[in-house]
Amino acid sequence: MPTIEKLYYTIGEVADQLSIKASQLRHWETEIDVLKPKKNRHGNRAYTKEDIETVRLIQYYIEQGYRLDGVNRRVSQHKKPALKKIEMVDKLKRIRAFLISLRSE
Fold it and tell me: Which helix (H) or strand (E) holds 46?
């Protein structure tokens, strides 16, 4: 049976998934032009997978030492190449964790 994927995620789910605070996500929405999750009539945010990729990209640039104004420029200009780099780093981290677990066995 095929797995049904969610189309939208709450701010709490995104915050938990990426290990950040919901308040930080709300702040980034005000500072980063391309991060604009949809809101329902009650004002609850609904993040798409693309929004989550944008948040991961913001995290990456902040970890690299960029300030939010620099992050804002880079996210809007260089999104696709940076996302590929983040995917590669994530894969390498998983491989490293796997190799470490093998070594400990």
Answer: strand 45-46
